[in-house]
Amino acid sequence: MSGTVPRLSPATVEVPHRPDTVRILHLGPGAFHRAHQAVFTEDAGGGWGICGVTQRSPAVVDQLRPQDCLFTVVERSRTTTSCRVVGTIRDVLFARAEPERLRAYFTDPKVRIVSLTVTEKGYRPDSGVIGQLVAGLEARRATSEAPITVLSCDNLTGNGTVVRSRVLEACARLPHGDSLASWITDHVRFPGTMVDRIVPATTDADRAEVRSVLGVTDEAAVVGEPFRQWVIEDDFAAGRPAWETVGAQLTDDVAPYEAVKLRVLNATHSLLAYRGALAGYDTIAEAVADPVLAEEAAEFMEHDVLPTLVVPDDVDIAAYRRRVLERFANPALRHRTTQVAMDGSQKLPLRLLGTVRDRLAVGEVPIRAVRAVAAWMVYVAVGRDRDGRPLPLDDPLADRLRAAAGGAGQPHAIVDGLLSVREVFGEDLPDHAALRAALVEAVADIAAPVR
Ligand code: CS2
Protein backbone atom coordinates (compact mmCIF):
# COMPACT_ATOMS: atom_id res chain seq x y z
CA MET A 1 0.00 0.00 0.00
CA SER A 2 2.56 2.54 1.14
CA GLY A 3 4.26 2.35 -2.26
CA THR A 4 1.28 4.02 -3.89
CA VAL A 5 0.96 6.78 -1.32
CA PRO A 6 3.40 9.69 -1.72
CA ARG A 7 5.96 10.40 0.99
CA LEU A 8 5.40 13.40 3.26
CA SER A 9 7.41 16.30 1.81
CA PRO A 10 7.06 20.03 1.08
CA ALA A 11 5.49 18.99 -2.23
CA THR A 12 2.77 16.81 -0.72
CA VAL A 13 1.54 18.71 2.35
CA GLU A 14 0.91 22.27 3.34
CA VAL A 15 4.16 23.31 4.98
CA PRO A 16 4.32 25.50 8.07
CA HIS A 17 6.52 28.58 8.02
CA ARG A 18 10.02 27.20 8.39
CA PRO A 19 13.10 28.80 9.96
CA ASP A 20 15.96 28.97 7.44
CA THR A 21 18.85 28.93 9.89
CA VAL A 22 19.94 26.16 12.21
CA ARG A 23 20.45 27.72 15.63
CA ILE A 24 19.88 24.62 17.76
CA LEU A 25 21.91 21.45 17.47
CA HIS A 26 19.92 18.65 19.05
CA LEU A 27 21.53 15.37 20.14
CA GLY A 28 18.92 12.58 20.08
CA PRO A 29 16.07 13.67 17.77
CA GLY A 30 13.87 10.71 18.75
CA ALA A 31 10.11 10.69 19.20
CA PHE A 32 10.17 12.64 22.46
CA HIS A 33 12.18 15.54 21.08
CA ARG A 34 10.00 15.77 18.00
CA ALA A 35 6.77 15.85 20.02
CA HIS A 36 8.10 18.21 22.69
CA GLN A 37 10.94 20.69 22.10
CA ALA A 38 10.45 20.77 18.33
CA VAL A 39 6.80 21.75 18.82
CA PHE A 40 7.51 24.42 21.46
CA THR A 41 10.27 25.82 19.24
CA GLU A 42 8.04 25.96 16.19
CA ASP A 43 5.28 27.68 18.16
CA ALA A 44 7.72 30.22 19.58
CA GLY A 45 8.85 31.28 16.08
CA GLY A 46 11.72 33.72 15.67
CA GLY A 47 13.77 31.64 13.25
CA TRP A 48 15.23 28.93 15.45
CA GLY A 49 15.83 25.94 13.16
CA ILE A 50 17.04 22.64 14.57
CA CYS A 51 19.58 20.12 13.29
CA GLY A 52 19.05 16.66 14.81
CA VAL A 53 22.09 14.49 15.47
CA THR A 54 21.50 10.76 15.82
CA GLN A 55 23.89 8.73 17.90
CA ARG A 56 23.46 5.02 17.68
CA SER A 57 21.89 4.41 14.30
CA PRO A 58 21.03 6.28 11.12
CA ALA A 59 17.35 5.23 11.44
CA VAL A 60 16.03 8.69 12.28
CA VAL A 61 18.09 10.24 9.48
CA ASP A 62 16.57 7.75 7.05
CA GLN A 63 13.10 8.64 8.29
CA LEU A 64 13.49 12.41 8.16
CA ARG A 65 15.88 13.20 5.32
CA PRO A 66 13.67 12.04 2.44
CA GLN A 67 10.90 14.21 3.94
CA ASP A 68 13.00 17.39 4.09
CA CYS A 69 12.83 16.79 7.86
CA LEU A 70 9.08 17.36 8.05
CA PHE A 71 7.11 15.09 10.36
CA THR A 72 3.62 14.74 11.79
CA VAL A 73 2.74 15.03 15.45
CA VAL A 74 -0.40 13.00 16.12
CA GLU A 75 -2.10 14.21 19.26
CA ARG A 76 -4.40 11.70 20.89
CA SER A 77 -6.82 12.42 23.69
CA ARG A 78 -9.30 9.84 24.92
CA THR A 79 -11.82 10.96 22.33
CA THR A 80 -10.07 12.92 19.60
CA THR A 81 -7.07 12.66 17.33
CA SER A 82 -5.47 15.55 15.50
CA CYS A 83 -2.47 15.72 13.17
CA ARG A 84 -0.06 18.58 12.67
CA VAL A 85 3.00 18.80 10.43
CA VAL A 86 6.03 20.34 12.15
CA GLY A 87 8.81 22.06 10.20
CA THR A 88 11.36 23.31 12.77
CA ILE A 89 13.85 20.55 12.09
CA ARG A 90 15.90 21.70 9.10
CA ASP A 91 18.65 19.12 8.98
CA VAL A 92 19.65 15.74 10.41
CA LEU A 93 22.93 13.91 10.53
CA PHE A 94 24.31 10.61 11.76
CA ALA A 95 27.26 11.57 13.95
CA ARG A 96 29.44 8.58 13.18
CA ALA A 97 29.04 8.86 9.42
CA GLU A 98 29.27 12.66 9.16
CA PRO A 99 31.78 13.92 11.72
CA GLU A 100 32.78 16.92 9.59
CA ARG A 101 29.24 18.21 9.29
CA LEU A 102 28.77 17.74 13.01
CA ARG A 103 31.93 19.71 13.70
CA ALA A 104 30.79 22.48 11.37
CA TYR A 105 27.61 22.92 13.37
CA PHE A 106 29.46 22.91 16.67
CA THR A 107 31.79 25.65 15.47
CA ASP A 108 29.08 27.77 13.78
CA PRO A 109 28.43 30.91 15.88
CA LYS A 110 24.83 30.96 14.58
CA VAL A 111 24.28 27.78 16.60
CA ARG A 112 23.44 29.07 20.08
CA ILE A 113 22.10 25.98 21.85
CA VAL A 114 23.09 22.31 21.94
CA SER A 115 20.16 20.43 23.42
CA LEU A 116 19.96 16.77 24.41
CA THR A 117 17.40 14.01 24.76
CA VAL A 118 19.61 10.97 25.09
CA THR A 119 17.77 9.16 27.92
CA GLU A 120 19.18 8.39 31.35
CA LYS A 121 21.86 6.04 30.03
CA GLY A 122 23.15 8.69 27.61
CA TYR A 123 24.80 10.46 30.56
CA ARG A 124 26.95 7.47 31.47
CA PRO A 125 30.55 8.54 30.93
CA ASP A 126 30.99 5.72 28.38
CA SER A 127 27.89 6.60 26.33
CA GLY A 128 29.66 8.55 23.60
CA VAL A 129 27.39 11.57 24.00
CA ILE A 130 29.61 13.25 26.56
CA GLY A 131 32.69 12.67 24.38
CA GLN A 132 30.84 14.16 21.43
CA LEU A 133 29.90 17.25 23.45
CA VAL A 134 33.44 17.76 24.72
CA ALA A 135 34.91 17.36 21.22
CA GLY A 136 32.32 19.81 19.88
CA LEU A 137 33.02 22.39 22.56
CA GLU A 138 36.75 21.99 22.02
CA ALA A 139 36.28 22.66 18.30
CA ARG A 140 34.16 25.71 19.06
CA ARG A 141 36.78 27.09 21.37
CA ALA A 142 39.43 26.57 18.70
CA THR A 143 37.40 28.46 16.08
CA SER A 144 34.61 30.94 16.76
CA GLU A 145 34.89 30.87 20.56
CA ALA A 146 31.24 31.95 20.64
CA PRO A 147 29.35 31.29 23.88
CA ILE A 148 26.77 28.50 23.78
CA THR A 149 24.19 26.80 25.98
CA VAL A 150 24.00 23.06 26.64
CA LEU A 151 20.38 22.23 27.40
CA SER A 152 19.64 18.79 28.82
CA CYS A 153 16.03 17.72 28.33
CA ASP A 154 16.18 14.31 30.01
CA ASN A 155 14.45 13.01 33.13
CA LEU A 156 17.38 13.33 35.51
CA THR A 157 17.62 15.06 38.85
CA GLY A 158 19.57 18.26 38.19
CA ASN A 159 20.04 17.42 34.52
CA GLY A 160 21.94 20.66 33.81
CA THR A 161 24.34 20.08 36.67
CA VAL A 162 24.79 16.44 35.70
CA VAL A 163 25.75 17.18 32.11
CA ARG A 164 28.05 20.00 33.21
CA SER A 165 29.84 17.71 35.69
CA ARG A 166 30.20 14.92 33.13
CA VAL A 167 31.67 17.36 30.60
CA LEU A 168 34.14 18.82 33.11
CA GLU A 169 35.11 15.32 34.31
CA ALA A 170 35.80 14.35 30.70
CA CYS A 171 37.95 17.47 30.26
CA ALA A 172 39.96 16.46 33.30
CA ARG A 173 40.91 13.25 31.48
CA LEU A 174 42.28 15.15 28.46
CA PRO A 175 45.97 16.11 28.18
CA HIS A 176 45.28 19.87 28.04
CA GLY A 177 41.86 19.63 29.59
CA ASP A 178 42.37 22.37 32.18
CA SER A 179 42.27 25.26 29.78
CA LEU A 180 39.29 23.75 27.95
CA ALA A 181 37.48 23.36 31.26
CA SER A 182 38.10 26.97 32.15
CA TRP A 183 36.92 28.14 28.71
CA ILE A 184 33.76 26.05 29.20
CA THR A 185 33.22 27.52 32.64
CA ASP A 186 33.37 31.03 31.19
CA HIS A 187 31.50 30.55 27.90
CA VAL A 188 29.02 27.70 28.29
CA ARG A 189 25.83 27.64 30.36
CA PHE A 190 24.11 24.43 31.47
CA PRO A 191 20.56 25.32 32.58
CA GLY A 192 18.35 22.64 34.08
CA THR A 193 14.96 21.71 32.66
CA MET A 194 11.92 19.64 33.48
CA VAL A 195 10.25 18.15 30.42
CA ASP A 196 6.92 16.37 30.29
CA ARG A 197 4.84 14.81 27.56
CA ILE A 198 3.91 11.14 27.19
CA VAL A 199 5.21 10.03 23.79
CA PRO A 200 5.00 6.27 23.22
CA ALA A 201 7.04 4.61 20.47
CA THR A 202 5.31 5.07 17.11
CA THR A 203 3.69 1.92 15.72
CA ASP A 204 2.72 0.76 12.22
CA ALA A 205 -0.90 1.43 13.15
CA ASP A 206 0.00 5.07 13.92
CA ARG A 207 1.73 5.45 10.56
CA ALA A 208 -1.28 3.89 8.84
CA GLU A 209 -3.51 6.43 10.55
CA VAL A 210 -1.39 9.34 9.30
CA ARG A 211 -1.57 7.82 5.83
CA SER A 212 -5.33 7.78 5.91
CA VAL A 213 -5.74 11.24 7.49
CA LEU A 214 -3.09 13.17 5.53
CA GLY A 215 -2.88 10.96 2.45
CA VAL A 216 0.92 10.71 2.70
CA THR A 217 3.41 8.23 4.09
CA ASP A 218 5.27 9.67 7.07
CA GLU A 219 8.09 7.46 8.32
CA ALA A 220 8.90 9.98 11.08
CA ALA A 221 5.45 10.48 12.60
CA VAL A 222 5.23 10.70 16.38
CA VAL A 223 2.29 10.32 18.75
CA GLY A 224 1.76 12.24 21.96
CA GLU A 225 -0.84 13.08 24.55
CA PRO A 226 -2.38 16.59 24.51
CA PHE A 227 -0.57 17.57 27.74
CA ARG A 228 2.86 19.12 27.53
CA GLN A 229 4.96 20.99 30.05
CA TRP A 230 8.43 22.50 30.06
CA VAL A 231 10.08 24.25 32.98
CA ILE A 232 13.42 25.82 32.08
CA GLU A 233 16.07 27.51 34.16
CA ASP A 234 16.56 30.88 32.49
CA ASP A 235 20.32 30.84 32.17
CA PHE A 236 21.37 31.01 28.52
CA ALA A 237 24.73 32.07 27.14
CA ALA A 238 23.61 33.34 23.74
CA GLY A 239 19.83 33.77 23.63
CA ARG A 240 16.97 31.33 23.20
CA PRO A 241 13.58 31.07 21.50
CA ALA A 242 10.72 32.88 23.25
CA TRP A 243 9.48 29.59 24.69
CA GLU A 244 7.74 31.44 27.54
CA THR A 245 5.27 32.89 25.01
CA VAL A 246 4.00 29.40 24.14
CA GLY A 247 3.51 27.84 27.53
CA ALA A 248 6.99 27.03 28.82
CA GLN A 249 7.79 28.25 32.33
CA LEU A 250 11.08 30.07 32.74
CA THR A 251 12.34 30.05 36.30
CA ASP A 252 15.48 30.38 38.35
CA ASP A 253 15.02 27.05 40.14
CA VAL A 254 13.86 23.95 38.32
CA ALA A 255 14.73 21.49 41.09
CA PRO A 256 11.37 21.39 42.92
CA TYR A 257 9.44 20.95 39.63
CA GLU A 258 11.82 18.24 38.56
CA ALA A 259 11.47 16.38 41.86
CA VAL A 260 7.67 16.49 41.64
CA LYS A 261 7.73 15.17 38.10
CA LEU A 262 10.30 12.41 38.66
CA ARG A 263 8.94 11.23 42.00
CA VAL A 264 5.24 11.47 41.18
CA LEU A 265 4.86 10.90 37.44
CA ASN A 266 7.91 8.90 36.42
CA ALA A 267 8.05 6.82 39.59
CA THR A 268 4.37 5.89 39.33
CA HIS A 269 4.91 5.14 35.66
CA SER A 270 7.64 2.67 36.60
CA LEU A 271 5.50 1.16 39.36
CA LEU A 272 2.67 0.56 36.88
CA ALA A 273 5.07 -0.68 34.22
CA TYR A 274 6.60 -3.47 36.36
CA ARG A 275 3.46 -4.38 38.28
CA GLY A 276 1.40 -4.15 35.08
CA ALA A 277 3.76 -6.11 32.85
CA LEU A 278 3.99 -8.93 35.42
CA ALA A 279 0.21 -9.01 35.65
CA GLY A 280 0.01 -9.48 31.89
CA TYR A 281 -1.05 -5.96 30.86
CA ASP A 282 0.36 -4.68 27.59
CA THR A 283 -0.26 -1.00 28.20
CA ILE A 284 -0.04 1.52 31.03
CA ALA A 285 -3.72 2.38 30.45
CA GLU A 286 -4.70 -1.26 31.01
CA ALA A 287 -2.54 -1.45 34.13
CA VAL A 288 -4.08 1.65 35.69
CA ALA A 289 -7.56 0.38 34.84
CA ASP A 290 -6.92 -2.50 37.27
CA PRO A 291 -8.40 -1.25 40.56
CA VAL A 292 -5.73 -2.95 42.66
CA LEU A 293 -2.90 -1.31 40.73
CA ALA A 294 -4.68 2.06 40.55
CA GLU A 295 -5.06 2.06 44.32
CA GLU A 296 -1.46 1.04 44.82
CA ALA A 297 -0.37 3.90 42.55
CA ALA A 298 -2.54 6.48 44.32
CA GLU A 299 -1.40 5.34 47.77
CA PHE A 300 2.22 5.33 46.69
CA MET A 301 1.95 8.98 45.64
CA GLU A 302 0.07 10.02 48.75
CA HIS A 303 1.83 8.14 51.53
CA ASP A 304 5.36 7.60 50.27
CA VAL A 305 6.14 10.38 47.80
CA LEU A 306 4.19 13.37 49.05
CA PRO A 307 5.96 13.64 52.43
CA THR A 308 9.32 13.88 50.62
CA LEU A 309 8.40 16.77 48.30
CA VAL A 310 8.92 20.49 48.56
CA VAL A 311 6.01 21.52 46.36
CA PRO A 312 6.39 24.79 44.43
CA ASP A 313 3.71 27.40 45.30
CA ASP A 314 2.14 27.34 41.87
CA VAL A 315 1.65 23.55 41.83
CA ASP A 316 -1.61 22.11 43.19
CA ILE A 317 -0.22 18.73 44.12
CA ALA A 318 -3.57 17.01 44.69
CA ALA A 319 -4.70 18.05 41.22
CA TYR A 320 -1.31 17.10 39.81
CA ARG A 321 -1.58 13.57 41.20
CA ARG A 322 -5.10 13.12 39.87
CA ARG A 323 -4.05 14.46 36.50
CA VAL A 324 -1.13 12.05 36.27
CA LEU A 325 -3.44 9.08 36.79
CA GLU A 326 -5.89 10.47 34.22
CA ARG A 327 -3.08 10.92 31.72
CA PHE A 328 -1.92 7.33 32.29
CA ALA A 329 -5.50 6.13 31.78
CA ASN A 330 -5.67 7.60 28.24
CA PRO A 331 -6.40 4.40 26.28
CA ALA A 332 -5.65 6.00 22.91
CA LEU A 333 -1.92 6.23 23.67
CA ARG A 334 -1.25 2.49 23.94
CA HIS A 335 1.98 3.14 25.83
CA ARG A 336 3.50 -0.28 26.39
CA THR A 337 4.42 -1.37 29.91
CA THR A 338 7.59 -2.98 28.53
CA GLN A 339 8.65 0.33 26.98
CA VAL A 340 8.44 2.16 30.31
CA ALA A 341 10.10 -0.87 31.97
CA MET A 342 13.27 -0.36 29.87
CA ASP A 343 16.51 0.76 31.53
CA GLY A 344 15.27 0.18 35.06
CA SER A 345 18.80 0.20 36.47
CA GLN A 346 19.16 3.79 35.27
CA LYS A 347 15.67 4.96 36.17
CA LEU A 348 15.09 3.46 39.63
CA PRO A 349 17.69 5.55 41.47
CA LEU A 350 16.24 8.76 40.03
CA ARG A 351 12.57 7.93 40.39
CA LEU A 352 12.16 5.66 43.38
CA LEU A 353 15.28 5.36 45.49
CA GLY A 354 15.37 9.05 46.49
CA THR A 355 11.91 8.61 47.97
CA VAL A 356 13.01 5.38 49.67
CA ARG A 357 16.08 7.07 51.17
CA ASP A 358 14.16 10.12 52.37
CA ARG A 359 11.55 7.99 54.11
CA LEU A 360 14.10 5.65 55.67
CA ALA A 361 15.96 8.70 56.97
CA VAL A 362 12.90 9.66 59.06
CA GLY A 363 12.41 6.11 60.28
CA GLU A 364 9.63 5.05 57.89
CA VAL A 365 9.74 2.08 55.54
CA PRO A 366 7.83 3.28 52.44
CA ILE A 367 6.06 0.02 51.67
CA ARG A 368 4.49 1.04 48.36
CA ALA A 369 7.78 2.35 47.00
CA VAL A 370 9.33 -0.89 48.24
CA ARG A 371 6.69 -2.84 46.30
CA ALA A 372 7.57 -0.93 43.14
CA VAL A 373 11.27 -1.77 43.60
CA ALA A 374 10.32 -5.37 44.36
CA ALA A 375 8.25 -5.52 41.16
CA TRP A 376 11.34 -4.47 39.21
CA MET A 377 13.32 -7.21 40.95
CA VAL A 378 10.72 -9.83 40.02
CA TYR A 379 10.60 -8.49 36.47
CA VAL A 380 14.40 -8.91 36.22
CA ALA A 381 14.65 -12.25 38.03
CA VAL A 382 11.60 -14.09 36.69
CA GLY A 383 11.40 -12.45 33.26
CA ARG A 384 7.89 -13.76 32.54
CA ASP A 385 4.41 -12.47 33.20
CA ARG A 386 1.84 -14.47 35.13
CA ASP A 387 0.72 -16.19 31.94
CA GLY A 388 4.28 -17.26 31.20
CA ARG A 389 4.90 -14.77 28.41
CA PRO A 390 8.53 -13.59 28.33
CA LEU A 391 9.28 -10.00 29.37
CA PRO A 392 12.23 -8.29 27.64
CA LEU A 393 15.07 -7.05 29.84
CA ASP A 394 16.22 -4.03 27.88
CA ASP A 395 18.84 -2.43 30.11
CA PRO A 396 22.50 -1.41 29.77
CA LEU A 397 23.23 -3.56 32.85
CA ALA A 398 21.08 -6.51 31.67
CA ASP A 399 23.81 -9.15 31.94
CA ARG A 400 24.96 -8.03 35.35
CA LEU A 401 21.40 -7.81 36.63
CA ARG A 402 20.54 -11.29 35.38
CA ALA A 403 23.66 -12.72 36.97
CA ALA A 404 23.02 -10.89 40.25
CA ALA A 405 19.39 -12.03 40.39
CA GLY A 406 20.52 -15.62 39.89
CA GLY A 407 17.30 -16.77 38.21
CA ALA A 408 13.89 -17.03 39.80
CA GLY A 409 15.15 -18.41 43.10
CA GLN A 410 14.04 -17.73 46.65
CA PRO A 411 12.86 -14.18 47.38
CA HIS A 412 15.76 -13.49 49.74
CA ALA A 413 18.25 -14.63 47.10
CA ILE A 414 16.69 -12.37 44.47
CA VAL A 415 16.69 -9.41 46.85
CA ASP A 416 20.23 -9.92 48.14
CA GLY A 417 21.56 -10.50 44.65
CA LEU A 418 20.03 -7.37 43.16
CA LEU A 419 20.62 -5.17 46.21
CA SER A 420 24.30 -5.90 45.78
CA VAL A 421 24.36 -4.02 42.46
CA ARG A 422 25.98 -0.87 43.86
CA GLU A 423 25.42 1.17 40.71
CA VAL A 424 21.69 0.97 41.44
CA PHE A 425 21.43 0.78 45.23
CA GLY A 426 24.58 2.59 46.35
CA GLU A 427 26.54 1.74 49.47
CA ASP A 428 23.80 2.56 51.96
CA LEU A 429 20.66 0.68 50.92
CA PRO A 430 22.03 -2.91 50.76
CA ASP A 431 22.84 -2.76 54.48
CA HIS A 432 19.46 -1.49 55.61
CA ALA A 433 17.89 -4.42 57.45
CA ALA A 434 14.31 -3.11 57.54
CA LEU A 435 14.40 -2.28 53.84
CA ARG A 436 15.78 -5.71 52.99
CA ALA A 437 13.09 -7.45 55.03
CA ALA A 438 10.33 -5.40 53.39
CA LEU A 439 11.75 -6.15 49.94
CA VAL A 440 11.89 -9.89 50.63
CA GLU A 441 8.27 -9.88 51.73
CA ALA A 442 7.16 -7.82 48.71
CA VAL A 443 9.13 -9.96 46.24
CA ALA A 444 7.54 -13.12 47.70
CA ASP A 445 4.09 -11.60 47.40
CA ILE A 446 4.50 -10.24 43.87
CA ALA A 447 6.32 -13.30 42.51
CA ALA A 448 3.78 -15.79 43.88
CA PRO A 449 1.12 -15.44 41.16
CA VAL A 450 3.80 -15.08 38.48
CA ARG A 451 5.61 -18.37 39.01
C1 CS2 B 1 8.39 7.18 31.03
C2 CS2 B 1 8.71 8.58 30.53
O1 CS2 B 1 9.49 5.74 29.54
C3 CS2 B 1 9.45 6.16 30.69
O2 CS2 B 1 10.19 5.74 31.55
O3 CS2 B 1 8.20 7.26 32.40
O4 CS2 B 1 9.33 8.62 29.34
C4 CS2 B 1 7.45 9.47 30.53
O5 CS2 B 1 6.51 9.05 29.58
C5 CS2 B 1 7.82 10.91 30.24
O6 CS2 B 1 8.82 11.31 31.13
C6 CS2 B 1 6.61 11.80 30.36
O7 CS2 B 1 7.00 13.12 30.32
From TrEMBL:
Task: Tell me the ranges covered by the Mannitol dehydrogenase C-terminal domain, including all copies.
Answer: 253-446
One of its GO biological process terms is:
mannitol metabolic process
Q: Which residues form the Mannitol dehydrogenase N-terminal domain?
A: 23-244
Query: Which range is the signal sequence, renumbered to this chain?
Result: none
UniProt KW NAD keyword = yes
Q: Which Pfam families match?
A: Mannitol_dh, Mannitol_dh_C
What does the record give as EC number?
Answer: 1.1.1.17
InterPro entries named among the record's database cross-references: 6-PGluconate_DH-like_C_sf, 6PGD_dom2, Mannitol_DH, Mannitol_DH/Oxidoreductase, Mannitol_DH_C, Mannitol_DH_CS, Mannitol_DH_N, NAD(P)-bd_dom_sf
Which reactions is this enzyme annotated as catalysing? D-mannitol 1-phosphate + NAD(+) = beta-D-fructose 6-phosphate + NADH + H(+)
> Which EC class is this protein assigned?
oxidoreductase
Keyword hit for Oxidoreductase: yes
* GO molecular function ontology, one term from the record: mannitol-1-phosphate 5-dehydrogenase activity
Its family remark reads: Belongs to the mannitol dehydrogenase family.
Which protein is depicted?
A: Mannitol-1-phosphate 5-dehydrogenase
